[in-house]
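Side project, low priority. Logging it here so it doesn't get lost.
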Amino acid sequence: MSTRLYVGNLSYATTEATLTNLFQSVGEVVSVSIVTDRMTGQSRGFGFVEMATPQAAQDAINQLNGRMVDGRSIRVAEARPQETREPRGERRRGQRRF
């Protein structure tokens, strides 16, 4: 069973390959993704790493939280489940309801 980790305070220059290499030093990495802005494509400064086992994930938290990567001290923690959002209404652009 894999465990998903949140990785925060990333430099905009940090790549998925950089994170993959870093986390592989601790255990087997299943996937890596850095969240980017939809409009600009620039990194938003955080991402997610999925580790193969809960033990590898815990080792990554213990060994990599606070580690300097590309000049920034990264934050590594277990990812929280994504909150469900309520769908937005059928408001049309420019129309306001009072």
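Brief comment: The longest strand covers residues 43-51.
Revisit when time allows.
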